[in-house]
Specification:
single chain; 420 residues; alpha/beta; four-stranded mixed beta sheet; 14 helices; 25% strand; binds uridine-diphosphate-2(N-acetylglucosaminyl) butyric acid
Length: 420
């Protein structure tokens, strides 16, 4: 397995171009199943989750062709409606297949995802909504079997504004004549992005980005093009990299409004953020002031940047409190940060972080994508070398992470094939 060797203590300076959003690319790829022809997507990041999604599509009988950030998917001759366990277990977002398969073929057979490192992550809200739209659902040998003799438009209220749940319902509604309304829908930018793709394809959608979304399916086109939004979580991670190393980084190809909560928190810490069209410039300030953070659904502070901000707060002068409200088990980075010299105590969903002067490099590993990113950030600020194991977590969602960091002066190198 690959490892990263990071020699900390360098002020990062320069520009980084942000890739397309993993969490917008995955639903866009799932939506291609609805199109009885070709979907040409651009700004698709080259990350492992995208590659797994290509395998899932291939399994269904789709063909695809990748050229740089372009991905063209041909779903004209789908021959299977099954996403097996060996693919779903490596990527939970495979559940996004349920909605489009049901809409186009009236059936889907997708492995039930298990828990994961950040929580139990049930999909009960997805299934309840798909059932209301007209799907019969059963579980057989760990596989969810959905079938329908015809979906019908419904008014659906979500107990929680689940992101992929909202996306699944929007795509299932493509097969339900009439107007489906989702109340308490997720408002993340990735929802607006999917709505744009479906609208381009021929649907009529209003309210995406608010808590009430109305969806009317239309005659879907046979050729659809769509450019996915930039990755706000990747951008936030590099913004924190600038702050934690005392550096200055210009982030290019972003939508600054998607980062409002993150920029507000960086401002409270004493970091200087300048907004320009499609870019922000993040310049570290000293000393770092402690802040409190509550993760929340969009437009609140994103859970996907909680671990990274915690690394920054370790170097603030004083005590910060971070409360994780979205996932019940998203503090797996804490023991590893503590091994690097941090002083963090966790009680339930709350972490109390006491500022330290410096991180000390160590051998560390994490259990999920964003936790790994927080360790990279701590390592960049450490006064000696850190060896990060299980880099495959990072590869799931960060495109060329070490290359981008090297480009702004970080001393980081990948060792291929070593470690447990
Ligand atoms: N939940 C339920 N029942 C459901 C669905 C969700 O109880 O049927 C709970 C979850 O267990 C969790 C909370 O609701 O406690 C929020 O989950 P949500 O469904 O919104 O998350 P998701 O759709 O599974 C997406 C992102 C995650 C991101 C979350 C929250 C994708 C592919 N994944 O997951 O991204 O953390 O929204 O913003 O879009 C990541 O990129 O590292 C990542 C984990």
């Amino acid at each position: 397995m690959d490892e990263l060797l990071i020699q900390g203590g360098r002020r990062l300076k320069g520009a980084i171009t942000i890739s397309g959003a993993k969490n917008a690319a995955l639903p866009a790829m799932a939506a291609s199943i609805l199109i009885p022809g070709k979907t040409r997507l651009s700004n698709i990041p080259d990350v492992r989750d995208v590659r797994v999604m290509c395998q899932v599509l291939e399994q269904l009988g789709c063909t695809w062709d990748r050229d740089g950030d372009l991905l063209e998917i041909d779903a004209s001759s789908i021959s299977s409606v099954e996403a097996p366990y060996d693919l779903v277990r490596t990527m939970r977002a495979s559940v996004l297949m349920l909605g489009p398969l049901l809409a186009r073929f009236g059936k889907a057979r997708v492995s039930m995802p298990g828990g994961c490192a950040i929580g139990t992550r049930p999909i009960d809200i997805h299934l309840k909504a798909l059932n209301k739209l007209g799907a019969d659902i059963s579980l057989d040998h760990g596989m969810m079997e959905l079938s329908s003799n015809g979906l019908s438009a419904q008014e659906i209220y979500l107990d929680f504004p689940t992101v992929t749940g909202t996306e699944n319902i929007m795509m299932a509604a493509m097969g339900a004549p009439g107007e489906t309304t989702i109340y308490n829908a997720a408002r993340e930018p990735e929802i607006i992005d999917l709505a744009l793709l479906l609208t381009t394809a021929g649907a009529s959608i209003s309210g995406a980005g608010t808590d009430t979304v109305h969806i009317q399916p239309g005659m879907l086109k046979e050729f659809v093009t769509h450019r996915v939004i930039p990755d706000r979580i990747e951008a936030g991670t590099f913004a924190i990299a600038a702050a934690i190393t005392g550096g200055e980084i210009r982030l290019k190809n972003i939508v600054p409004e998607h980062l409002t909560a993150v920029m507000a928190k960086l401002g409270q810490v004493g970091v200087d953020v300048t907004i320009e069209p499609g870019e922000i410039i993040v310049k570290a300030g000293e000393p770092l002031r402690p802040v409190n953070i509550q993760t929340a659904v969009y437009p609140g502070y994103p859970t996907d940047l909680q671990a990274q901000f915690m690394a920054l707060m370790c170097l603030a002068e004083g005590e910060s409190v971070i409360t994780e409200n979205i996932f019940e088990n998203r503090f797996m980075h804490v023991p590893e940060l503590n091994r690097m010299g941090a002083d963090i105590a966790v009680r339930g969903r709350t972490a109390v972080i006491k500022g330290i002067r410096k991180f000390r490099g160590a051998e560390v590993m994490a259990t999920d994508l964003r936790a790994s990113a927080s360790l990279v950030l701590a390592a960049l600020a450490a006064d000696n070398e850190t060896r990060l194991l299980r880099v495959y977590h990072l590869d799931r969602g960060y495109e060329r992470l070490e290359g981008k960091l090297q480009g702004v002066g970080a001393q980081i190198e990948r060792l291929t094939g070593g470690g447990p």
